[in-house]
Amino acid sequence: MNAPNSYRTLPDERGHFGQFGGRYVAETLMPLILDLEREYRAAKADPAFQAQFDDLMKNYVGRPSPLYFAERLTRHYGGAKIYFKREELNHTGAHKINNCIGQILLAIRMGKKRIIAETGAGQHGVATATVCARFGLPCTIFMGAKDIERQQPNVFRMKLLGAEVRPVTSGSQSLKDAMNEALRDWVATVEDTFYIIGTAAGPHPYPELVRDFQSVIGIESRAQMLEAEGRLPDLLLAAVGGGSNAIGLFHPFLDDPEVAMIGVEAAGRGVDTGEHAASLTGGAPGILHGNKTYLLQDEDGQITEAHSISAGLDYPGIGPEHSWLHESGRVEYLPVTDQQALDAFQLCCKLEGIIPALESSHALAALESKAREMSSDKIILVNVSGRGDKDIYTVAEAMGTTI
Amino acid sequence: MTRLTAAFANARQQGRAALVTFVTAGDGDTAAILDALVAGGADVIELGMPFTDPMADGPAIQAANLRSLAKGTRTADVLAIASAFRQRHPHVPLVLMGYANTMTRPEPATFAKAAADVGIDGAIIVDIPPEEADEVAPFGDHGIAAIRLATPTTDTSRLPAVLGGASGFVYYVSVAGITGKQQAAQHSIDDAVARLKAATDLPIAVGFGVRTPEQAAAIGRLADGVVVGSAIIDIIADKGADAPPAVRNYIESLSAAIAVARKELAA
């Protein structure tokens, strides 16, 4: 494939990133999705919308999030200089809130009276329940019954915030089934309900608007890095499930050829074991949840179950823009196993005094090879997309400890 | 004249709507159930392609999909069921219904050819709206009708996009929602059918939530076809191996009601 003049002009007017993306939804939803696109274009051009978004980002979310020099981790690897983008310091403890603020403002603008969302680990559910409480809208969160079991603290948080948490018992009872169920609700309630999708996936315009709302991560990082080092980083690292924290960091840097980027996929017990969530490394292009993208599937197109120790990465697909960036070669995607992520989790706790989310620990795990092989005059920026308090039970279990 | 066109024309000639029935391939003894549908008076058969993630379906058809997949049903099995049906019933139109991901494997053109070769007449692909129709253009090249869905949310401005490139018949989804749930008010169905008929010469079949002979008759007074799905799936789930005769009885009750619906109206 020839390199395009810019990597930042997509999607096209039909919502496609090359062959990926699009609007593969039931006819019932099409008119609403076209409406959403019109409304999003209008909001983007409306200074009042941007001003309200910026104000909430600053005073409610606590942005800008810091850029932090991870001195001891840098010394530990003895190679490139390591910086963290501290998204875990945001209100609700992850990058998810950036997108939820944007989407709830869109929902209000469209006159919608009710919010639905899907959640895996519960981070997006908590962020959605938070903005619904803040704006006084009723909210239903669809969550796989299995995930409810393993993420009790977040379930209770959502309930405290006033959300209804609806257990999903169909299929594999995890994130993909929660998304199926949210879509089933939405198709019956399109008139008054807004669906806040949690990642840069789903039918157009979701991948685009989620990316735009999350791009605050990359825009801030770029300015902060120029201030701290007087230059851009050599490498960006971010974990990729659906891929919203990664695309939010990457997108503002895509046209800076000196900046390399790696999206880290969850390899679970290993890509060759079949028990993983690495859609790009171990999947093939297909159509699910409104978009064409890389999916874990068999040769008949049946979706296979994903596995990752991180519930937030436990999804058999990936945002369509990542599929395109993968095929175009602009971004490299690397698998990291449960064990590597667990090791990185503990190392970060001990050396930096930061408990990272298991999702973010996948990005941190890539430092093991990358930081070592790059010289000390190079700079790596890692997106610490969320904090790991929610994961302590999972980690304890993996370490063979009880809390 | 295609089998689909002939089936609707034949029903029209008899002064009634066509009865369109749905069954998930591989859920129960599909061959025997298909024969029961035909024997009971079905004019068109929709054969559901099982999929792991049937996003537009309610609990009944979701469960049917999972039962079928749990038994190990593969795409090759679905095509074999279709092929054997075509041998037994050379004139009854058979339409595949399902989701894009299984109907574009390994490539849309390869799948379309394989389906055409076993005598499939049309395809209803729930998650291919007109905006993404290019994806399945090879279906048309192989003579497989592109059956489009119109819904209560399809407004007048979208109608040309939905109907452009449609063939076989138009499936009016009478409820904004998933399969098997509540039925729409009859007057809203009648309005929608009238609106669609003004915009196309294709037959209009109405489905979602149709269960009783009375409902089928009420829809059949105006629409060119009545689609019944979840109610059949419920019988299969309930009766298991004894499903075929029960399905046949049920279909007979529907076709009998539809056969006289317009005459009652005229009387």
TrEMBL record, chain A:
Record EC number: 4.2.1.20
Residues recorded with modification N6-(pyridoxal phosphate)lysine: 96
Cofactor(s) needed by this chain: pyridoxal 5'-phosphate
CDD domains given in the database record: Trp-synth_B
Keywords: Amino-acid biosynthesis, Aromatic amino acid biosynthesis, Lyase, Pyridoxal phosphate, Tryptophan biosynthesis
Catalysed conversion reaction: (1S,2R)-1-C-(indol-3-yl)glycerol 3-phosphate + L-serine = D-glyceraldehyde 3-phosphate + L-tryptophan + H2O
Pfam families from the UniProt entry: PALP (PF00291)
Domain (Tryptophan synthase beta chain-like PALP): residue spans on this chain: 62-386
Protein task: The beta subunit is responsible for the synthesis of L-tryptophan from indole and L-serine.
Similarity comment: family membership: Belongs to the TrpB family.
PANTHER family reported in the protein's UniProt record: TRYPTOPHAN SYNTHASE (PTHR48077:SF3), TRYPTOPHAN SYNTHASE-RELATED (PTHR48077)
Listed name of the protein: Tryptophan synthase beta chain
Lineage, top ranks: Bacteria, Pseudomonadati, Pseudomonadota, Alphaproteobacteria, Sphingomonadales
From TrEMBL, chain B:
Classification via SUPFAM superfamilies: Ribulose-phoshate binding barrel
Annotated EC: 4.2.1.20
Enzyme class name: lyase
A Pfam match: Trp_syntA
InterPro entries for the chain: Aldolase_TIM, RibuloseP-bd_barrel, Trp_synthase_alpha_AS, Trp_synthase_suA
Active site: 46, 57
Catalytic function, reaction form: (1S,2R)-1-C-(indol-3-yl)glycerol 3-phosphate + L-serine = D-glyceraldehyde 3-phosphate + L-tryptophan + H2O
Pathway terms, separated by semicolons: Amino-acid biosynthesis; L-tryptophan biosynthesis; L-tryptophan from chorismate: step 5/5
Homology family: Belongs to the TrpA family.
Self-association and partners: Tetramer of two alpha and two beta chains.
Its job: The alpha subunit is responsible for the aldol cleavage of indoleglycerol phosphate to indole and glyceraldehyde 3-phosphate.
Protein name in the entry: Tryptophan synthase alpha chain
